[in-house]
Amino acid sequence: MSFKSIIQDMRDEIGSISRKGFEVRLGYGLRSRSHRVVHDALGRPLVDALKQSCWANMPPELLRDVLMRIEEAESSWPPRKDVVACAGVCRSWRDIMKEIVKTPELSGKLTFPISLKQPGPRDFSLQCFIKRNRATQTYHLYLGLSQALTDNGKFLLAARKCRRPTCTDYLISLDADDMSKGSGTYIGKLRGPRRMQCVMDSIPASAIEPGGVAPTPTEFLLSSLDSFPSIPFFKSKSFRSENLSGPLSGQKEGKLVLKNKAPRWHEQLQCWCLNFRGRVTVASVKNFQLVASEENGPAGQEHDKVILQFGKVGKDLFTMDYRYPISAFQAFAICLSSFDTKIACE
């Protein structure tokens, strides 16, 4: 049997088991383990079936080669669910997949739930969109699967707005249906009293410089979900990212500051405009672009790159494009704040 046939047979067997009741969702992850993406009840049929198959005792070197071929072949969703399925088979398979699958910063791909808290790619923006449900006060974030917004996209995160006497909370979850703080898929919240605040990891100002590094978590930590300090959004000036309990708390280095990108005068339209490159089609006070502020140091080429842009394209439909050094979770939280305070436009 040729090596190509081995890979095809392996992929077919995993797919066959998946169709029998094993559903893989990027959004279902347990907080304590970064790559455990399925509930035990759902994963057991797959594990039991593969233990009885010819793949159970495959030599490690051959197994690694096969899994690498699958990871390279399934580069986009929904086929990439096979990569997630491989990581959910058993500990040895999961360990290999954790080594093979690179972070979004290096690969430009969102694979496991922890990818949503890791910095985006350096060379381009990941294109996402947000759907708002006014009736239920919920917001759903999707990864765009094509340039058109007609597809359903790949579900990433969900948030529910909770109004309180003194503040407004947005509970953010990996589950599209259960956004309660007590659920196993709760990963953070956005809180706003008179001015919106956001909970996120520290990002040093040097992260945007050549060779700079941004925090890249490798697992969801139970202790950190409710220990993040509240971070104020300065409505008209900039956005500051800090975390006193984060890994950089002992450093004196300044934190990354983002500001609104200055619009340019359009001679033909006779107005000030921002170039969203076709990703925003409806004029709205919620539309914004964020770039690195001069407060981070001498202005350079890196300061001109749009780190996050958000804009309206239809009724209750918005695009969200982000890149390094922020994560999908951080970008989503910033965009959620725009629904209440219009931080980038006041």
TrEMBL record:
Domain Tubby C-terminal intervals: 191-341
Cited SUPFAM superfamilies: F-box domain, Tubby C-terminal domain-like
Q: Which Pfam families match?
A: Tub (PF01167)
User: Per its UniProt record, what Gene3D superfamilies does this chain match?
Assistant: 1.20.1280.50, Tubby Protein, Chain A (3.20.90.10)
Say which family it is in.
Answer: Belongs to the TUB family.
- The identity of this protein, by name, is Tubby-like F-box protein
Q: Which organism is it from?
A: Phoenix dactylifera (Date palm)
